Structure formats: structure tokens, C-alpha cells
Amino acid sequence: MLLVTGTTGLNGSAVVHELAHEGVAVRALVRDLAKARQAPVPSTVELVEGDMLCPDTLGPALDGVERVLLISTANERMVETQTTFIDAARRAGVEHVIKFSGRATDAPSGFRFAHMHAEIEEYLRSSGMRWTMLRPSAFMQVYFREVPSMTGEGVLNLPMGDASIAPVDVADIAKVASALLQGKGEADRRYEMSGPESLTMDQVAETVSSVIGKPVRYVAADPAAKREALLKAGLSPFFADALDELFAERRRGCAEAVVDSSTHEAFGVRPTTFAEFVRKHEAVFRGEAQPSNLWAAGWLPSGR
Ligand SMILES: NC(=O)c1ccc[n+]([C@@H]2O[C@H](COP(=O)([O-])OP(=O)(O)OC[C@H]3O[C@@H](n4cnc5c(N)ncnc54)[C@H](OP(=O)(O)O)[C@@H]3O)[C@@H](O)[C@H]2O)c1
Fold this sequence. Notes:
Layout: E1 2-4, H1 10-21, E2 26-30, H2 33-36, E3 45-49, H3 59-62, E4 67-70, H4 78-91, E5 96-100, H5 112-125, E6 130-136, H6 147-152, E7 155-158, E8 164-165, H7 170-181, E9 189-193, E10 199-200, H8 201-212, E11 217-220, H9 223-232, H10 237-252, H11 262-266, H12 274-280, H13 282-285, H14 293-296
Parallel strand pairs: 1-2, 1-4, 2-3, 4-5, 5-6, 6-9, 7-11
Antiparallel strand pairs: 8-10
Helix pairs in contact: 1-7, 4-5, 8-12, 9-10
This protein binds NADP nicotinamide-adenine-dinucleotide phosphate.
């Protein structure tokens, strides 16, 4: 049996639907069955309730499982959530854990989630189970957050200076994660994954502008003002500070700026360009549709 966690989220839902598309049966761990059933659930998917922070709830989800894809929310409790789950998986006899991580998380970084991923990766490596680290760069889907200001004011407003990053489409990541879950690729290794181009924010704005046919220009935001705006918009101080660290890393130049297509090549996945991604989700970038998790990942018919 294969188990995917984080399945009400962006990547977990994309992986479950990729497996279903390939006709592979999978079990999906969810904290709340009712919430999970709000989205279409393919018939090959077995939903099982459990909380990764509460090992006592995980028995049915882990029963008979050979390989797991481990994803959870980037938050204050990410290390506790994932290490608790790793312990439960080992006790239940799981053979192999594929950890959804971040780009080059072993490199020195001032970004708190990079440290957390590094700590979890180390914990998993010493667990005695087989491991694989899937390390994507920034998701193309994060630009959905910028749609209101791009369509409203014609402005992409980020504190990125003239830095570039090579974002990757979640749909590409899902294809690799699906292959890894099915035992393809090598165990006990790290798979770095970026999109096919390293783009400045000017280039991101130009691409969106040319697809939606409206002017969009990049304005380099002041980092402190951006943090204030995020707090005003309701982000927690913890997450606003995390983004502040991330933007600072990017302005300094970080691994996310470097194109690495080795994982796409190893698994025969054609890297989606940013222009293809924007065209695929044109209605969202025009502000005419809301991205749901599934839709954002490209799995509902309108996104495929
Ligand atoms: N944003 C980026 O560009 C980027 C790039 C590379 C890596 N990452 C990493 O990607 C990961 C997040 O992936 P995502 O964006 O696909 O996730 P997401 O959309 O934030 O969804 C997180 C999922 O984890 C589940 N979850 C959280 N705590 C749980 C618990 N205690 N028990 C069971 N399920 C739990 C959530 O379930 P509920 O619905 O019940 O809350 C949800 O399904 C993070 O580790 C982040 O560091 C992000």
C-alpha cells in the first residue's frame, strides 16, 4: 500500500490525482474526512483519517503501508509534525519515506523553513527506514497570491530586488512524486527540482502581461513595508517573518535561482515553462477564477 499525507493541500492533492490518473491505488491521510470530501475524490483513493501530531490516531492509515510521501504545512510545528509521523511510520513497519522538502536545504540559509527541513531530513536519514528527499524550488502556484495586485493595479509588488528564481509547476513535481512512490528512482538520495528558466520579477510580470493582454509591471517592494502589508492582510507574525527571511535569501542569491532539470530528465517529465503555466491558468491570472488546490495543481479538466 502507498500512503500520501498532506492530501487536502496543494501538492498532496496533485500527487493523489496523478496516481489516480495513472490508475494506481493509494491511501490518503486526512485530518478531517468531511473537509477532504469537499473536493472530488477519485474512486482509487482510500481516505483515512488521522493526525500526524497524534500517533495514536495513525494506526489505520499506516497499516500495511510500504511507501509514504510525507508532506505537511509550513508552520511552527512542521518539525514536530513530521518527526512524530516518522517515528509512527517506523514503528508500523513502513519501509520507505519520501520526504517533500525544499531546494538545497542543507546549504547555509537564513530561512527558517530551510532549517526545519534540514532537521527533519537528518531525523529521517537516521531512522533506519529507506529515504528519498524530493526538493522542489518555489512553486509557480505562489504567483496566484499576486493576482489581485497584478489585475487591480497592474503591479507585481515583491521585495525581490533584481533577483531571479526558477519556479517549478506543482504538476511536474506530482509526476515525480508519483514515480517515487511507485518505487522508481533511487532510494537514499536527494532529488533537486526547479523549473526550466531562472526568471527575474520583471520577466514574470512581462509573461503574465503578455498572456492576459494587460500591462503588468514589477515594482521592487521595500522589505519592511511588504512585511507590514502581509501582517495587515492577516498573515501570522511567524509566517510574515519567514517570508521576510526568504525574500532576503533570494535578494542575496540562493539555490532557487539555479536551474536544475536533472530530476525532470531522470523521470522523463518535460519541464513546464512559466509561460505555459500562465496560459494553462489564464482565467486565474485574469482574476476571473479562483484557484482551488486541485485546480491550482492542474488536475481538474480545465487545468489539464
Ligand atoms: N511554497 C513553496 O514555494 C514551497 C517550495 C518548496 C517546498 N515547500 C514546502 O512544501 C510543503 C507544503 O506543501 P503544500 O504547499 O503542498 O502544503 P499545503 O497546501 O500547505 O497543505 C499542507 C497539508 O498538510 C496537512 N497537515 C498539516 N498538519 C497535519 C497533521 N498534523 N496531520 C495531518 N495532516 C496535516 C494539511 O491538512 P489540513 O487540511 O488538515 O490542514 C494539508 O493537507 C512545506 O513543507 C513547504 O516548506 C514549499
